[in-house]
Structures are given as C-alpha cells and as structure tokens.
Amino acid sequence: MKFKRQFAQLSIASALIASTLGAGHVASASSAGEGPEQQATMYGDTSHPKNVIFLVGDGMGPAYNTAYRYFADSPDTKEVENTAFDDYLVGTQQTYSDDDKENITDSAAAGTAFSSGHKTYNGAIGVDKKQNDLETVLERAKKLGKSTGLVSTAEITDATPAAYTANVDDRDKKDEIAHQFYDQRINNQHKVDVILGGGAKYFGKENGNITDQFKNDGYGVVTNRQQLENASEEQLLGLFADKNMPLAIDAEEDQPELLDMQNAALERLSKNDKGFFLMVEGASIDKQGHANDITGVMSEME
Question: Where is Zn(2+) bound in this sequence (predicted)?
C-alpha cells in the first residue's frame, strides 16, 4: 500500500483537468451522479491548475479493483475495507477508439485521447484519424513554461508515455519515437525534462546513441536505483531495462520501483514556480493481465 498511500496525498488530475491547459477537447465520458466537471472540482482548481499529475493504472478496470479489494482485505474484520483507490473513485468512463475495424481501445488510442482529448484509431500515437499531429497536454504545459515528466514501468517508448510527446502513425515505430524524444523541441527546449522507465535498447548505439545526446545536453543519465538516488541534475533520463522493467516482486535490489521514479520526478519538477505536468504509468498491471498472472497484477497494484 506504500505506493498508493503516498499518491493519496497528492492532487490527482483527470483528463478534464488536463484539458484546461488547452490540449484540445475532452473525449466523451459518462459517470454516475453529478456531471464530470462538478466532480473534478473536488480535486482542486480546475480552471487554472498549477500542477497536473496524471496517473495511469494500465488495464486496471473494475474487475481488477474488485480483485484487489478482496486481496487486500483483512481476514480479521467482518467488513471489506476500502482501498486507497476508493477515495478517488468518482465514476466510470466509456472508452472506444475511432477505428473502422475495431471498437475496443488499445493503449495507443487511449493514450492519445488522454493526452490530447481527441479520439483516434488503434495504434496511433499523437495523431488523429487522418494522421494529423495533435497537441498534447504535456506540450501545452511546456509552452506555458511548466516542467514536464514521463514515468512508466514499460518501455518509455511504449504507447502510453509515447502518446504524450510523439507523433507517429504506428505504435510499433519505437526507434522513431525514441528519436522524437530527443529531436522535438518547444521554445528550443526538450519537451520532457524527466524521462524514467524501460526501453534502453531504443536509446543505444543501434539507434544513434540517443542517450549520449541527452547527456551532452546536460541531462543526468542513470540506469539503477543508486544512480537515481545520487543524481543531482534537474533534467534526467533514467533507463532501467532494455525493454519493459521487471515486476516489483521479481526485481533485483538495484532496480528502482515505480514509487522511487515518481519521487525522483516530483523532486525535480516541483522546483518550477510555474508548475509542472507529470504522467505516471503502472504499465505492468496490464501486461500481467495479458498473461493471466493474477499474482503479478495484484503485486503491481500493491
């Protein structure tokens, strides 16, 4: 519960709040009770947010939350205790992609809808159905002078984090996505100040030594927990696995957990008086769901 309890103290933002920074229109949603605008105000000033923390439990739908509620329940009490998630549950959102062949959203279309407010086809990263580039909430935040960060237990070039900063017609173009992390600028600055996750293979010598390019531009480059804790640079590139990061229950001691990466990002981004945008993804929840690994799913939610 350590990870979630700490998040419970943060101001958690939804796509509705993110949209107030100017990144397009919010994708349609439905929820019980009051309208989503009224519910979102429970979490702070939605008209002029200074800081936005967008949390993604990838694949973590109602069935997963129900399973976790029973998993975390104390056998010593009659009632089923609430989890940290219950404090922030305000309703459900209907999801579907703008795809002529499929109607079940994949992470690329969902990530693009979250980041830009526009629906698109499955596999699309930061582009609409006609493959026009879309402005994202992260890019809008950068234009406003805010600091920005992306944190994920997946490859940082994977669909969800990529959807906040890249523009490609196919989520599998990870070499190109990695180059866009470095090449694309806003006001002559890199779009993302703190980049933490897996996917080192896409930043290495086989793809143009992108890691070295970031280092030459003043970024701290770290590959394990100790280096992450000792890093002093305000801009940071942390790549902790060649591909996806291992599950927390399987990781070696020198492997940072999602909480470690989130804290490292917040420590740096919060120094900006103009505020920040941070997306944090627990990606392995979904990946272990694909494998029907209930132990892996519960451990990643824990």
Answer: 58, 286, 290
State how far the Cα of 154 lies from the Cα of 171, in Å rounded to an integer. Answer: 13
Domain boundaries, the chain: 51-74+135-301
Please tell me which residue in 107, 115, 116, 284 is annotated as part of the active site: 107
Tens-digit pLDDT string for the chain (302 aa): 444 444 433 433 333 334 445 444 333 333 333 444 444 444 566 678 899 999 999 999 889 999 999 999 999 999 999 898 888 777 777 789 999 999 899 999 999 999 999 999 999 999 999 999 999 999 999 999 999 999 999 999 999 999 999 999 999 999 999 999 999 999 999 999 999 999 999 999 999 999 999 999 999 999 999 999 999 999 999 999 999 999 989 999 999 999 999 999 999 999 999 999 999 999 999 999 999 999 999 999 98
Give 29's contacts (C-beta < 8 A, 6+ positions apart).
15, 36, 93, 94
Residues annotated in a binding site for Mg(2+)? 58, 158, 160, 281
Residue 133 sits at φ, ψ, to 5 deg, of: -65, 140
Residues of each annotated binding site: 58, 158, 160, 281, 286, 290
The one-letter amino acid at 92? T
Helices (H), 73-209: 107-116, 137-143, 159-162, 174-183
Fold of the 51-74+135-301 domain = Alkaline Phosphatase, subunit A (3.40.720)
Determine whether 47 is an active site residue: no
Annotated binding site for Zn(2+): 58, 286, 290
